[in-house]
Specification:
Chain B: It comes from Paraglaciecola polaris LMG 21857. Chain B: This is tRNA 2-thiouridine synthesizing protein B. Chain B: One of its GO terms (biological process) is tRNA wobble position uridine thiolation. Chain B: InterPro entries: DsrEFH-like, Sulphur_relay_TusB/DsrH. The complex is a heterodimer. Chain A is α/β, with parallel strands linked by helices. Chain A has helices spanning 19-32, 82-87, 104-112, and strands at residues 5-10, 36-41, 77-81, 100-102, 116-119. Chain A is built from three helices and five strands; from the N terminus they run βαββαβαβ. Chain B is α/β, with parallel strands linked by helices. In chain B, 39% of the residues lie in helices and 21% in strands. Chain B has a five-stranded parallel β-sheet with strand order 4-3-2-1-5. The longest helix of chain B is centred in the middle third of the chain and has 14 residues, at 42-55. Chain B is globular, with a radius of gyration of 13 Å. Chain B starts with a strand and ends with a strand. At the A-B interface, loops of A face α3 and α4 of B.
Chain lengths: 120, 107
């Protein structure tokens, strides 16, 4: 089986929906099967990466703690939309992991090179 | 005297904006779930501040929902606009607020 490149695009804020948790599960599972995974965070998706999240159990699991483990799954291509960060007055030091911030036009260029794209 | 419960992010929908434009004197507004991101959205903050000043509208946010969403609210001072007028409340106080208002609307 040849490896495919998969792009997972996160566009929703954490806790209001379970999209974030599910996309992360998919990323880990896909990487476990030896595929190349790239993650993209755009629009309210950038809020998923904010540091020091402390949900109570009723709000769901604090899956932001899993982001630092992505590198152990060889998921190192993590891109964040620069315009989305700016609109939300976030800077890179507000985020819990190291990411690559790029203007949306460049993110699109990266996405176009991938075999599959999924949006959460 | 209505309590408006807002729960959507101002970055992805204009529900908050629409409701704010229809609020009347002595109404209350509580920001829960993704609506707590209103504190990072300058136009909404300004609209809330105007309502608070001009129509005596009380503004609240749910403490647990702010804390869940991380440092942006819990650890970083929001210096883009005055936010002191928005009171952080517990779930218990939220229940009290629903009893203190004549009607409650979830938007």
């Amino acid at each position: 089986m040849s490896a495919k490149s998969v792009g997972i695009i996160n566009t929703t804020a954490p806790y209001g929906l379970s999209n974030g948790q599910e996309s992360l599960d998919l990323a880990l599972a896909t990487a476990n099967f030896g595929q190349e995974v790239s993650l993209f965070f755009i629009d309210d998706g950038v809020f998923q990466l904010v540091k020091y999240q402390q949900p109570i159990p009723e709000q769901g699991k604090n899956y932001s703690k899993t982001f630092p483990a992505l590198t152990f799954y060889d998921i190192d291509d993590i891109y964040v939309c620069e315009q989305s960060l700016n609109a939300r007055r976030l800077v890179l030091t507000d985020l819990c992991i190291e990411v690559i911030a790029l203007p949306y036009e460049e993110l699109s260029a990266h996405m176009m090179q991938l075999d599959h794209l999924m949006r959460f | 005297m209505t309590l408006h419960i807002m729960s959507t992010s101002p970055f992805v929908s204009n529900v908050v904006e629409n409701v704010l434009s229809r609020c009347v004197k002595d109404d209350g507004i509580i920001l829960i779930q993704d609506a707590v991101y209103c504190l990072a959205h300058l136009p909404t903050l300004n609209a809330l501040f105007d309502l608070h000043k001009n129509k005596d509208i009380a503004c609240y946010t749910l403490e647990d929902d702010m804390t869940a969403r991380g440092s942006f609210f819990a650890h970083r001072k929001i210096d883009i606009a005055p936010t002191d007028f928005i009171k952080r409340v517990s779930v218990e106080k939220f229940v009290t607020l629903t009893l203190e208002h004549h009607q409650v609307i979830s938007w």
